[in-house]
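Predict fold of ArsR family transcriptional regulator; 163 aa.
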Amino acid sequence: MAEKKMKLDKFDIEILKVLQRDATVSMAELSQHVGLSHTPCWRRVKRMETDGVITNRVTLLDAKKLNLGVSVFIYVTLKNHDGNSLTSFENAVQDIDEIVECHTTSGDKDYLLKVIVRSIEEYEHLLKSTLTNLPLVDHLSSTFALKQVKNTTELPLNNGAVN
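Predicted 3D structure, encoded as tokens:
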């Protein structure tokens, strides 16, 4: 069953653009920026929160300043592909803090993980002690990011993806 898509107008999209850049903006500033009075703007934000368009408001951290400068992308292939195996693997990765993203993928690899650690040595320890012991792992292929060329938390709301 397809998930119901919410209809968004130009005000909703502008609200989302502003909140993606700064979730701490006051409602007064937000309403002024998008050209609505306070109450209608607040109602739109609350509706988008209730409908799940706005899922969370977070504080973004600088990994390098926190001594977490090594990003590793790992392709994972599992031994089995039945529902229980996939669920078992997906549940196991939830408990590993260094895994900051986990995506199912198409093609000959089953998952793509993004891991953030302090050092290559820390990654090697994580690999040997934890990642190779994840349920039903057949093969892991790691790639280290050399430099981050682009980093955005903003979804591309200008390209017609909404509505």
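The first strand starts at residue 70 and ends at 78.
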